[in-house]
UniProtKB/TrEMBL annotation:
<keyword id="KW-1133">Transmembrane helix</keyword>
<comment type="function">
    <text>Cytochromes P450 are a group of heme-thiolate monooxygenases.</text>
</comment>
<dbReference type="InterPro" id="IPR001128">
    <property type="entry name" value="Cyt_P450"/>
</dbReference>
<keyword id="KW-0560">Oxidoreductase</keyword>
<keyword id="KW-0479">Metal-binding</keyword>
<keyword id="KW-0503">Monooxygenase</keyword>
<dbReference type="GO" id="GO:0006082">
    <property type="term" value="P:organic acid metabolic process"/>
</dbReference>
<protein>
    <recommendedName>
        <fullName>Cytochrome P450</fullName>
        <ecNumber>1.14.14.1</ecNumber>
    </recommendedName>
</protein>
<keyword id="KW-0492">Microsome</keyword>
<feature type="transmembrane region" description="Helical">
    <location>
        <begin position="6"/>
        <end position="24"/>
    </location>
</feature>
<dbReference type="GO" id="GO:0006805">
    <property type="term" value="P:xenobiotic metabolic process"/>
</dbReference>
<dbReference type="Pfam" id="PF00067">
    <property type="entry name" value="p450"/>
</dbReference>
<keyword id="KW-0812">Transmembrane</keyword>
<dbReference type="GO" id="GO:0005506">
    <property type="term" value="F:iron ion binding"/>
</dbReference>
<dbReference type="GO" id="GO:0020037">
    <property type="term" value="F:heme binding"/>
</dbReference>
<keyword id="KW-0256">Endoplasmic reticulum</keyword>
<keyword id="KW-0349">Heme</keyword>
């Protein structure tokens, strides 16, 4: 090692120690942070976290340090909430104080800090209020959107019939349906399942999910300033989002040409009208760039998460044919074969409803939610948490609580059924997170999962090319999200 490298390493170590001292002095006298493992200079506790299985690492640390503990990831202190009581107390009981979005370098990089996902404060409140109102106006949670989902479910069945019962990878087919629902809301379009432009968009979202769930991105989020200018998949994510940006920008330009304020057609029209209302306000947050990144956020939340849940769910049903058989019996008894499933059927189908809940619980799709941050200096339990501190709520620790869900590592619909076979609600069911930052599209996602699953199983028997006992359901990545393994299945018409 030459002298210049030794000097550089020495300077880096000195700067790191200085930052740690400044951080300590800032909080001195205000109270103590929650306990946690001893951290190393510069890298913090990164070596104590398995980046291929972060939820498991957090569970191990929680056993030693308790349900509220501190980690240093890179130069940043984060507070982990582990277990239902800690998560509920923070996100629900003290929701306003835990309502900010935590620091997510990769999302801030690819979105330029725009959109609703990484916004905070008054800006976030205005954007969320507008999005919720507009989505409701276009039917989210209402009969009108249910009809759209039912129609898309029929299109899905037609496409699955084209596989003629041969083994197929369901990834793109299952992605088309929820993506088309979002397309209908955002820019009132429906794409054919073979449309190459549409399939390219789906491929981009799938690739984005894989990369942001990879270990490299977890490292990048800890050391963004150090790694930003180095080669790595964070640059690929940026290129992916730029391509999606261009796709949506073309739709926005088309809407600007054809906008009729007396007859708004979709989300983009409503946003453009809002822009016109605020054009005299120089500081307005309603800009074209914000619109495009909000649309990307809605696509990301409403397409890839739902399609991944469908794909993972079918894999679990292949693994557990006895569960699939019971769903078929319930569908035959309640719906039959002559009409489309509807949301009213849900209350008469406790077993199917329980299975869908168990799929979401078991796959634990977004294990640590998106990070939160505290909006002010607060005392939480016996600890002090400075304003702006990132909070990681472990949803895994809630969804896998062994007191609420006996044998949580087993796929068991009985977790959501009482002794008489009726559906049993659980406060521990938090796949959409909880509190002020709960998923915007929760009601739409619940509707889609029920209608798509029941429509598929109303029309097909699922068959795996391999013996069910040999099917591996272990995710291939468990970073930001859990990515199911590749598999093939046969859709056999009933």
């Amino acid at each position: 090692m030459d002298l210049s490298m030794v000097i550089e390493l020495g300077l880096l170590l000195c700067i790191s120690c200085l930052l740690l001292i400044l951080s300590w002095k800032k909080n001195f006298g205000k109270g103590k942070l929650p306990p946690g493992p001893i951290s190393l200079p510069i890298i913090g506790n990164i070596l104590q976290v398995n980046l291929k299985n972060i939820p498991e690492s957090l569970s191990v640390l929680a056993k030693k340090y308790g349900p509220v503990f501190t980690l240093q990831l890179g130069m940043e202190h984060v507070i982990v909430l582990h277990g239902y009581e800690a998560v509920k107390e923070a996100l629900i009981d003290h929701g306003d104080k835990f309502a900010d979005r935590g620091h997510i370098p990769i999302l801030e990089y690819i979105s330029n800090g725009l959109g609703i996902g990484v916004s905070n404060g008054e800006r976030w409140k205005q954007l969320r209020r507008f999005c919720l109102m507009t989505l409701r106006n276009f039917g989210m949670g209402k009969r009108s959107i249910e009809e759209r989902v039912q129609e898309e479910a029929k299109n899905l069945v037609k496409e699955l019939e084209k596989t003629k019962g041969l083994p197929c990878d369901p990834t793109f087919i299952l992605g088309c349906a929820p993506c088309n629902v979002i397309c209908s809301i955002i820019f009132q379009k429906h794409f054919d399942y073979k449309d190459q432009k549409f399939l390219h968009l789906l491929k981009l979202f799938e690739e984005d999910m894989k990369i942001v769930s990879s270990p490299w991105i977890q490292v990048y989020n800890c050391f963004p300033s150090l790694l930003h200018h180095l080669p790595g998949s964070h640059h690929k994510v940026y290129k992916i989002i730029h391509l999606i940006y261009e796709f949506i920008f073309e739709e926005v330009k088309e809407h600007q040409k054809t906008l009729d304020p007396s007859n708004p057609r979709d989300f983009i029209d409503c946003y453009l009208m809002k822009m016109e209302q605020e054009k005299q306000q120089p500081q307005s947050i309603f800009t074209i760039e914000n619109l495009i990144y909000i649309a990307i956020d809605l696509f990301s939340a409403g397409t890839e998460t739902t399609s991944t849940t469908l794909r993972y769910g079918l894999l679990l049903l292949l693994k557990h044919p006895e569960v699939t058989g019971k769903i078929h019996e319930e569908i035959d008894r309640v719906i039959g074969r002559n009409r489309s499933p509807c949301m009213e059927d849900r209350n008469k189908m406790p077993y199917t409803y329980a299975v869908i809940h168990e799929i979401q619980r078991y796959i634990d799709l977004i294990p640590n939610s998106l990070p939160h941050a505290v909006t002010q200096d607060i005392h939480f339990r016996q600890y002090f948490i400075p304003k702006g501190t990132t909070i990681i709520p472990s949803l895994t620790s809630v969804l896998y609580d062994d007191k609420e869900f006996p044998n949580p590592n087993q796929f068991d619909p009985g977790h959501f059924l009482d002794e008489s076979g009726k559906f049993k609600k659980s406060d521990y069911f938090m796949p959409f997170s909880a509190g002020k930052r709960i998923c915007l599209g929760e009601s739409l996602a619940r509707m889609e999962l029920f209608l798509f699953f029941t429509t598929i199983l109303q029309n097909f028997t699922l068959k795996s090319p391999m013996d069910p006992k040999d099917i591996d359901t272990t995710p291939t990545a468990s970073g930001f999200g859990k990515v199911p393994p590749f598999y093939e299945l046969c859709f056999l018409s009933l």
